[in-house]
Design goal:
The chain is of the alpha/beta class. Helices cover about 30% and strands about 25% of the residues. It folds into three domains: about 30-45 and about 60-180, 3-Layer(aba) Sandwich (Rossmann fold); about 220-430, Rossmann fold (3-Layer(aba) Sandwich); about 430-530, 2-Layer Sandwich (GMP Synthetase, Chain A, domain 3), CATH 3.30.300.30.
């Protein structure tokens, strides 16, 4: 709280814009950190548990004090207003203290993927022109190699003694004066995954966070203050940030953080110990959980929402998870550039195979290569407009201009819309196959492959046949890898041929022990196309 004074916070209100869409209206002075920290004390939530870990609970009062101390520690190190602090920090309470303390003190936090390599960190250190970097000791090897080329003014480990940030924070004041800001000011950055080139710094404003919380977490997901929320995607991803940081801390709910590398074993333990009511994972992780058979119905008795993102949810996965838990998966798609989820299904409005409908406050269009709207049931590029869309790419006006045209963000995804207004994911635009002059979605074929009882995972790419014509090639992980054989491949091809249009079935089936994936669990089909995985 500001110097111990109790004061009210001006309300964020909703209005309708000139096109009939809901739009948030923010107070003239608006530092979003106050609404995620001080507000909970004003509303009497100080003694409630905000964060649960394997070895401690943190109340909202302790969380606010932690954020204040970390913000003061940054000030004490000379990190000033508008300067960037890179965060390579594991999922722990200190991640949240640093993130919100930085924003409250006027510093811009930049959470980074903790699984990057030294060359990626080196690029980001140069690109961001950061004033500081904070890292968990677990990531020291790659970080310290990158630091050999450039050292910001403040480089600290997250835990330890002396110059460790948590040690400095313990000595800092528990009271922090909020640095004034406006809803449109720079607030935090995230870097893109860099799968199509160098990572890009995505700049988000203070108001973006509230837009994602009110429009998706509250209105679409239906999350509540009494929820216990656990996310497999980590806090440094846009998906994980919305599910396990901004969403629960806006609501005054409880979030479970587990700093171990996620596995079916660790997640099963979290279910048994903390009984989450909201659970989030990517489709590949749901499949791993089901294959491991570690969860029983008694373990998920309190579950009321299951969220999936990153890739489309195959209908067979939906069926099997619903059979186990009684809770359907509500799918959504979001992006780093959009801050969180902008198309999603609701618990009472799920259509098989569909991502869902636009989240309140977002407009979407599906267009052809010339930028013209396409009719229903025709695939095209998905464009997006909404209050949480990024301000710009840092230090890259050309890519900003290419991605944001007349206020519309080109998402890079291919979608189609049916006559009832449901949106169906077809894949990344560069993953689509053109077979016999007709566009084919790899996801459609992959969903069919997953219906085969022997198939655990599958990815489909295009491959030229002997005549140079593109056909579908399936890369398959079997439930029992020892079953891989020419006969098994022929059985899988026949299975798909029986269920798909003749031009869609995979001409080749390649068995592998695992598929290439990003750190968020998305399948890297480009590596399969390039022949890097054989």
């Amino acid at each position: 709280m500001t110097e111990g004074k109790v004061r009210s916070l001006a309300a964020v209100t909703m209005e309708v814009d000139g096109e009939g869409m809901p739009r948030l209206r923010f107070p003239d002075s608006f530092n979003v950190a106050e609404y995620f920290t001080d507000r909970h004390l004003l509303e009497g939530r100080g003694s409630k548990v905000a964060i649960r870990t394997l070895d401690r609970d943190v109340t909202y009062a302790e969380f606010v004090e932690g954020a204040n101390r970390f913000g003061n520690a940054l000030k004490g190190l000379g990190v000033g207003r508008g300067e960037r602090v890179l965060m390579v920090v594991k999922d722990c309470p200190e991640f949240l203290y640093l993130f919100w303390g930085a924003i409250k003190s006027g510093v811009v936090p930049v959470p980074l993927n903790a699984l990057l390599r030294a060359k990626d960190y080196e690029f980001i250190l140069h690109d961001s022109a950061c004033a500081g970097l904070v890292y968990s000791p677990e990531y020291a090897s790659e970080i310290e190699t990158a630091l050999a080329s450039l050292r910001p003014q403040a480089v600290l480990r997250m835990t330890g003694s002396g110059q460790a940030l948590d040690a400095l924070a313990r000595e800092a004041s528990p009271l922090l004066e909020t640095v004034p800001a406006h809803a449109g000011d720079d607030c935090y950055w995230l870097y893109t995954s860099g799968t199509t080139g160098r990572p890009k710094g995505v700049v988000h404003a203070h108001g973006d966070i509230v837009a994602t919380c009110l429009n998706y977490t509250v209105d679409t997901l239906g999350a509540r203050e009494d929820d216990v929320i656990f996310s497999v995607p980590r806090l440094y991803f846009a998906f994980g940030m919305g599910i396990a940081n901004t969403g629960p801390l806006w609501l005054g709910a409880t979030v479970v953080l587990d700093d171990r590398r996620p596995s079916p074993q660790t997640v099963a333990e979290v279910f048994r110990r903390f009984h989450p009511t909201i659970f989030a994972a990517v489709p590949t992780f749901y499949l791993m959980m089901l294959a491991a058979e570690l969860l029983a119905k008694a373990d998920v008795i309190g579950l009321r929402r299951s969220i999936s993102g990153g890739e489309a949810t195959p209908p067979e996965l939906q069926r099997r998870w619903l059979e186990l838990t009684g809770v359907p998966i509500t799918e959504g798609i979001g992006s780093t550039e959009a801050a969180h989820i902008y198309i999603a299904s609701r618990i009472d409005d799920i259509r098989s195979g569909a991502t869902g409908k636009p989240v309140r406050g977002y407009r979407v269009r599906i267009v052809d290569d010339a930028g013209r709207d396409v009719p229903d049931d025709k695939p095209g590029r998905l464009l997006l407009k909404g209050q949480s869309v990024m301000k710009r790419y840092w230090n890259d006006p050309e890519k900003t201009a290419a991605a944001l045209v007349d206020g519309w963000l080109d998402t890079g995804d291919t979608y189609r819309r049916d006559g009832d207004g449901y949106y169906f994911y077809c894949g990344r635009s560069d993953d689509m196959l053109k077979v016999g002059g007709r566009w084919v979605s790899p996801f459609e074929i992959e969903s069919t492959l997953l219906e085969h009882p022997s198939v655990l995972e599958a990815a489909v790419v295009g491959r030229p046949d002997d005549a140079g014509l593109v056909k579908a090639e399936a890369w398959v992980v079997l439930r029992n890898p020892a079953d891989a054989s020419d006969q098994a491949g022929e059985e899988i091809r026949a299975f798909c041929k029986n269920k798909l249009a003749p031009y869609k079935y995979p001409r080749w089936v390649v068995f592998v022990d695992e598929l290439p994936k990003t750190a968020t669990g998305k399948i890297q089909r480009f590596r399969l196309r390039a022949g890097e995985w054989a």
